[in-house]
Amino acid sequence: MSYCSKAYKEPSAPKIVTSAIPGPESVKQIAELDKNFDARPVYFMCDYENSVGNYLADVDGNVYLDVYAQIASIALGYNNPDLIEAAKSPEMIRALVERPALGNFPGKDFNGILEKVLKLAPKGQSQVWSALSGADANEQAFKAAFVYYRAKERGGFEVKHSEDELTSVMENQAPGAPELAVLSFKKAFHGRLFASGSCTRSKPVHKLDFPAFKWPQAEYPYYKYPLAENEDYNKKEDERCLEIVENLIKTWPSTKGAKVAALIIEPIQSEGGDNHASPYFLQQLRDLTTKHNVVYIIDEVQTGLGATGSLWCHEQANITPPPDLVTFSKKFQSAGYWFHDEKFVPQLAYSIFNTWCGNPASMIIAGAIGEVIQREDLISQVNRVGDYLMAKLNKLAEKYPQHLGRLRGKGTFIAFDLESTETRDKLLKTLKLNGCNTGGCASASVRLRPTLTFEEKHADIFVEALEKSLAVL
Fold first, then answer.
1. What sections of the protein cross the membrane (predicted)?
2. Which of 187, 330, 331, 392 is catalytic?
3. Which of these, 435, 419, 437, lies nearest to 473 by C-alpha position?
4. Which end of the chain is less enclosed by CB atoms within 10 A, N or C?
5. In this structure, how many other beta carbons lie within 10 angstroms of the beta carbon of residue 445?
6. pLDDT tier, 1 (very low <50, low <70, confident <90, very high otherwise)
7. Is 425 an annotated catalytic residue?
C-alpha cells in the first residue's frame, strides 16, 4: 500500500499554549532525564505520537511547525504512513530482532534491501559501503581512501604488504601506519569522532580536550550575496582558496614521507554557517585532486537526499570525473559512502569492518524514503517551494536588512545571518513562541531545514512567524 504525504491530517497552524518554552511539563521531564542523561542541550521534550507531517508536538501540548526536522534528518515528516508500513514488514522484524552482523552473516533478504538503497546513488556512483552514522561514514571513507592511496604507492593492488609494514603497524609506526593526512576546510563539520573530529573546524566545543591528528585545513570560499551581482568578487575568492588548497597539497608538512592522501569537502558547510561552494570551485578541486593523486571525498551527510533541489547537492556541479567517495546519513536514515572504482574495496577483506557493518533496519527505511521521493516527485516540489520561500524572504530582507543578511540557499536548504549571536539566539527563542522550530549554525546564522514535504502553505506560516519575531527584536 502507498500513500501521499499530502494526505497527512496535519494541523492547519501551529499552537502554542505555554508562555515559555520549554513549558512546565517539559521542564519537569528534562529534570528527570538529567539524572541519568546529559539533558543540557535539550530544547523541549517531544510527543512523537502526536506529531504529524511537518508539525512537531511537545509534552506541554505545544505544536510547532518544524523547520529544523531533527537537525535536517527527517525527510518525509512525522508518522509518515509509508515508513510506518515499512516498519511493519517482515524484513524489518528480522532486521530488528536478529540485528545481523552483515559482514559475516547477511540475511537472504539483504540483496533486495541493498538494491533499493542503490537506486538513490549519486550520478556516477555504483557501489556502497554502509556505516552507523555520519561521523562513522566519514571515518570509514578516510580508511578506504588511505588503503587505496597506499596500494597505489606500493605499485599495485596485488602487491603484498611487506614484513616491515606488518610489524611497524603494531607499534603505530611507519611504514605500516603511514603519516597520511586528510585535507579539510576551515568551518567544516565532518563529525565528532577522532579522524572526523580532526577534520571538523566549526566550533571549539566539538574538539576541545580531545587528541587530534595534525592535519591541514584550507580556506573555504566566503561569497558575497546576491551571487549575480558579485560574480567577479566571488570568482576571485574561489581562485584564492584554490591556490591555498594546492599549496597545502604540495607542501604539507615538511616531514619526510608525510602526504595529503585525501580531501574532504561539504558542498554547503552546514554546521559551519551554510557556506556554499560554487560548481566551479568543486570542479577545480576535482582537477587538483586528480593532478596530485589525492582522493576526493564529498560529504553529503547534511546536504544529501533532496533538500538542495537535487537528490545530491554536488550533482548540481556536474563534477567530472565523479568524486571518488560520497558520504551520506541524516535524511537517508542510513549511513555510509558511495563509490564507483572497485579499487576502493580494500585489498584485505577485514581492513574496513565492524560487527554490524551498518544497520539493515535503517536501510529498509532508506529504501522506503527513496520510493516516496520518486513516486511523489518531491525534488520538483522542493525546487518549487524553495523558489516561493526565497521570494518571500527576499521581501522580508528588504524590510529588515539589519536582521536578515546574506540570504542564501538552494531548494529549501536556506540560511540568513543576524548581526550577533545574541540577536540570533533571541530570534530562535521568539520563533518558537510564535510556533516555529528552527536552528542556528556558526555564530550568527539561522538555518532552515524543513522536510521534503514542506509546501507553500507551510512557507506562508513560517514567513508570518518570522516577520512577527523580527518586529520585536
1. none
2. 330
3. 419
4. N
5. 23
6. very low
7. no
Choices 3.30.450.40, 3.40.640.10, 1.20.120.1760, 3.90.1740.10: CATH for 100-358: 3.40.640.10
Active site residue 355: yes
Question: Is 259 in contact with 181 (CB distance < 8 Å)?
Answer: yes
Domain boundaries, the chain: 5-81+379-471, 100-358
**DSSP assignments along 104-142, one per residue:** T---TTHHHHHHHHHTTPPTT--EEEEESSHHHHHHHHH
* Residue of 142, 189, 413, 454 marked active site: 189
| Set 167, 251, 290, 355: catalytic member | 355
pTM above 0.85, yes or no: yes
Which one of 66, 299, 324, 417 is the catalytic residue?
299
Report residue 6's pLDDT band, with 50, 70 and 90 as the boundaries: low
For 316-340, write each residue's pLDDT tens digit. Answer: 999 999 999 999 999 999 999 999 9
| pLDDT band with cut points at 50, 70 and 90 for residue 156 | confident
Assign 3-state DSSP to the chain and report helix, strand, coil percentages, each to 5.
Answer: 40, 15, 45
Our answer to whether residue 232 is catalytic in this structure is: no
pLDDT of residue 4: 54
Q: Is 82 a catalytic residue?
A: no
Report yes or no: 184 and 217 within 8 Å, Cβ to Cβ: yes
CATH number of 5-81+379-471, picked from 3.90.1150.10, 3.40.525.10, 2.60.40.150, 3.30.1780.10:
3.90.1150.10
Q: How many CA atoms lie less than 13 Å away from 445 in the CB half-sphere?
A: 21
- Calculate mean pLDDT across residues 35-64: 97
